[in-house]
Predict the 3D structure of the following.
Amino acid sequence: MLPILYSFRRCPYAIRARLALQAAQVHVVLREVVLRDKPDAFLRASPSGTVPCLVRGADVIHESIDVMLWALRQNDPHHWLRMPAD
């Protein structure tokens, strides 16, 4: 089963999470949230009602940086996680 990413099209945090997922070539089910009508499944996963929210079974990732790190640790073809040499 694919992870579910709850997102909002114009949220800059959700945008960077989606960008990292795409760059990492990690497949997810994208569920766009209408902020004035948040679905119950989304609110159960994210009681704060904030996006992005990545649901992987019982595990939920609420912060965009954590979504990015999770995705890039799966696959980092552009070496975004590589630290520059001193």
Notes: The mean pLDDT is 94.
